[in-house]
Amino acid sequence: MSAPPATPPRIHVLSPQVTAIMAAGEVMDDWGAVVRELIENALDAQAQRIQLHLDVSGQSLEITDNGWGMSWADLQVCCLPHSTSKAPADQGLPAVQTLGFRGEALHSLVQVGTVTIASRVNPQEPGWCVVYNSQGQVEQIETIAMAPGTKITVKNLFQAWPHRQHPPNLRDLQRIIYQAALCHPQVTWQVHNGPRAWFQLSPGQTAQDILLQIFPHLHPGDLQAWQSPQLELAIGRPDRYHRRRPDWVLLAVNGRCVQLKGNLGQELQQTLLQAWERTLPRHRFPLCFAHFQIPSEQVDWHCHPGKQELYVAHPQAWQDILKTALRDLNQITTSPEPTTITPSLGIKTSRAAELAGAYGRGVALLNSANPLPSQPELKVLTQVHQTYILVEHPTGLWLVEQHIAHERVLYEQLQADWALVELESPIQLERLTPPQIEQLTQLWMPPEPFGPSLWLIRQVPKTLQDRPDLAAAVWELSLTHQFQAALVATACRSAIRNGTPLGLGEMQTLIDQWQRTEHPQTCPHGRPICLRLEESSLARFFRRHWVIGKSHGI
Fold first, then answer.
1. Percent of the chain scored above 90 by pLDDT?
2. I want to staple 392 with a disulfide (CB 3.0 to 4.6 A). Which of 84, 135, 379, 385 is the partner?
3. How many CB atoms lie within 10 A of CB 317?
4. pTM for this prediction
5. Which residues contact 2 (CB under 8 A, 6 or more apart)?
6. For residue 529, which phi and psi values (nearest 5 degrees)?
C-alpha cells in the first residue's frame, strides 16, 4: 500500500561521511538494551506519557508513547541503518542534543525480533501500522485508527539468537526505567509485567519528586535538593537516610545516567562519597542523584555502544560546581525541609579555629571574625537532663545532643589543625607492637625506646594534654589504622560528656560552633545530632488550626 507523504519526513539516512566517524555501533544484546533504546526514542519524541508492557515468557514487549509520532514517509525509512531524525544529515555528530543520534537502534532491533510500529503524527492525518523484515524494510503497511503518538511491538525477541535468550533481570530493567524517570521527571510511567501492573511513576517537577516514589518509605524531609542551570542535585540527609551499598550514587549528563570516563567520573563520585565521609555510620553510603547540564560541544558520547560512558571537557569546572552544591547543602538553613537553593558561589565555609578558655574545660571556641550571614539565629533556652540543649529556631524547637555536637566541632577543628604540644614530663607506654609504633609515628608522636618493652611519648595532641587519662588516650590512638580515625578518637574522648552541667553562655557558644561546622547533621560516627520539632507540628498537635466554633461544638 502506498500514499503520497502528507508531511515532510523527519527521518533521513546519515551520510557515509558522518557514519564513518562513529566510534561505536549499537548492539541489542539483552532486554536492558532493548528497553533503554525504546525509552530514549520516546523521550526524544517529547513524550509525556510512556506505557511499557513486558512479556518475558512470551519473549515480547510493547511500548506506547504520546510523542510526536511518525509520518508515512518516516515509517518507510526509520528501521534502515543510520536513519534518524535527531542528527542533521549534513552536520557532524557534536551538534547532537538528543539521547539518540546514530540511527541504529531500530535497525538493530529488527534483527533480533519481529517489529511492528504503529504511529500517527496528528489528528488531521491517518495512522499507519507497519511490519518490518530483518533488514528494516517495509513488509506490510496499513492505515489504523489511533491517538497521536507511537506504539512499537516486538515479538519473538532473540528467537534467532539463542545465546541472548537468557531471562532478563527484572530489577535491572526497573532500574533503567527509574534512571530515565529521574532524568525526565515530567513524564508519566506505567509498566506492566505480563497481565499485571508492575509499577507506575507520576510526573513531578524535580528528581526529588521521583525519588519519593521510588522509595515510598522516605519523607520529604529526608531529602535535600540543590538546583542551578548547570546541576540538579537530590541527596538524602545523612542524619535521616543512608544505604548499605553505593548503588544509588548516580551521575547523569544531559538526560541520561552515565559513567564518566577518564578521571572526571571517578573524581565526581569520589567527591560525593568524601562529602559524606565521617557523617554517615561505618560502611553506609548516601542516596544521591546528580544531573549535569553540559553544553553538547563539551561532551563526547562516541566511546561506548550503549552511550553509558563519555568524556567531558573542562572537568575541573564541573567538579567545582558539585563541591559548591554539596557545601551549601551541608549548611543549616532556616528550614529543615528540603528546598531548592540558589547557589551562592561567594559563600565560604569557615572552619572552627582552636582557642582556649570556653566552658572552663579547655573546649575550643569558634573564631567568629567571619560569621556566615546565611545562618539562622539559634537561641539556647535550657539544658535537659544535662545531656540535651533545647534551642529555639525560627521554625520551631530543636533538641541538640551536647556530646556529639561538640564531637563534630572538635573533629573539624582537628581536621584544620592537628596541633601537637611538647610534654614537660613524657608519658610511658608498655608493650607497643610494631603496628602501634608505626601508627604513632605517622601521627607525629614517635615513641622513644626507654627500656625493655617500654616507650616514651613526648608529644601529644593539644586537646588531650591536660587529661588525666592521657596515657589511655594515646594508647587508643596507637590502635587506630588511619589518620581520620585518630581524629575521630581524639574528638570523641575530648568532647563534653553527657551528664555535664553547662551554663547558658557555654551552651550558646557550643551551638554557635556546631551551627557553623561543615557537616552539622551528624557526628563523625554518623549519629544524628539534632531532633527538630517544627512549629507546624506543634500547631497540629495543639489544634491551633481549628476555628473557635469547632472547639465549642458549634
1. 57
2. 379
3. 12
4. 0.76
5. none
6. -95, -35
